[in-house]
Amino acid sequence: MPRPILATIHTHALQHNLARARAAAPDARVWAVVKANAYGHGIEHVFEGLRGADGFALLDLAEAERVRGLGWRGPILLLEGVFEPRDLELCSRLNLWHAIHSDPQIDMLATHKTHQPHRVFLKMNSGMNRLGFTPARFRAAWTRLNALPQVDEISLMTHFSDADGARGIAEQMTVFATVTQDLPGERTLSNSAATLRHGAQSLSTRLGGLRAAADWIRPGIAVYGSSPDFPEHAMTHWDLQPTMTLASRIIGTQDLNAGDSVGYGSSFTADRPMRIGIVACGYADGYPRCAPTGTPVLVNGMRTRTVGRVSMDMITVDLSALQHAGVEAGYGSEVTLWGRARHGAVLPIDEVAHAAGTVGYELMCALAQRVPAIVL
Questions:
Q1: Chain centroid to CA 219
Q2: Are strands 327-328 and 76-78 parallel, antiparallel or unpaired?
């Protein structure tokens, strides 16, 4: 039989989370963000669950081709725009909308020969200080774009740096609204955190009554069942459901005496007699090597913990309180590394990521190619 590790993608959970994002901004259209191969889920795996979105947002031209190949005829937005002039040819052929965040991208458009003008999203650097035109240069960039015959419609966008924290979005919203107050075009501002935490927030009518939800929202991580502001709020607070389950089985057990150590580096030493289970999952499968002893895990739907160092192909878990867990007739107990166990219990990916000192995004995106995946 194949190695007993499996990723399961839950279509109903994708649909639920997408509806949850839409409910948080009921007057806005929704980009389903599927960059990074749909946050590690696989674009082909999530398409059915997310086809209720108004558009798909991503980074990679090859991924855009995959979405079109699945039969999607609606909007597709390249969040970082194009990287070289020939990319515009594919934008024309696939009817892709694309971000403009730099003068070289405008230069490329100015020399591009096309029969069909492009829909572009002009990006403002309102305080994130990654991509985009500064507020002082934004209107000049808009004027350049507006003069090009290669450009059809100009939409406006920015990205919040602190939507998930105490600083919030008010300062960046004020900057964006002040600079764009009398410019035409649709707006897109909010990622997952801004949508769930601030979707109803608006500025005064003096600044045009700009809403955080604007015309389009761009939910990413929330669509995949991870809380955008964990640990302040868990996924259950936002009524999100896990869209990926990583599960394996116990493939062996060991009985330890007090003083026995476990794994490479002997980083864990038993302080009492205990029983441990060996699980067919390791960092080569995408489980975080830095996950320490105590990282939560479910065995037969019951919560326990990891012990010792994560290996390439195995982790060890504490079975001391789980008398019936183990291996019987060559068939090991179910282990849920994150997601939903067959027994119905849920282990949020955020808890595993937090224990490992990272975020759920990274664990999803790190799922290894060697892990088989199925779609429910």
A1: 8
A2: unpaired
Q: 35, 123, 283, 287: which is the annotated catalytic residue?
A: 35
Residue 105 contacts by C-beta under 8 Å, 6 or more apart in sequence? Answer: 81, 82
Other CB atoms closer than 10 Å to residue 248's CB: what's the count? 24
Which pair of structure tokens corresponds to residue 137? 């240069």
Would you state the pLDDT for residue 206? 45
Phi first, then psi, for residue 101 (nearest 5°) are -125, 0
pTM: 0.95
- Cβ atoms of 186 and 160 closer than 8 Å: no
Query: Over the stretch 230-289, which tens digit does the pLDDT of each residue have?
Result: 999 999 999 999 999 999 999 999 999 999 999 999 999 999 999 999 999 999 999 999
How far is the C-alpha of 90 from the C-alpha of 165, rounded, in Å?
38
Q: What is the pLDDT of residues 321-373, one digit of tens each?
A: 998 999 987 789 999 999 999 989 999 999 999 999 999 999 999 999 999 99
Rounded CA-CA distance 16/18 in Å is 5
Sequence-distant (≥ 6) Cβ neighbours of residue 32 within 8 angstroms: 18, 50, 53, 55, 56, 57, 219, 223
Q: How confident is the model at residue 211 (pLDDT cuts 50, 70, 90)?
A: confident
Tell me which of 39, 113, 264, 287 is the catalytic residue.
264
CA 261 to mean position of chain CA atoms: 37
- Domains of the chain (ranges, CATH numbers): 11-224 (3.20.20.10), 244-347 (2.40.37.10)
Is residue 35 among the annotated active site residues? yes
Return the amino acid letter for 47: F
Our answer to whether residue 113 is catalytic in this structure is no
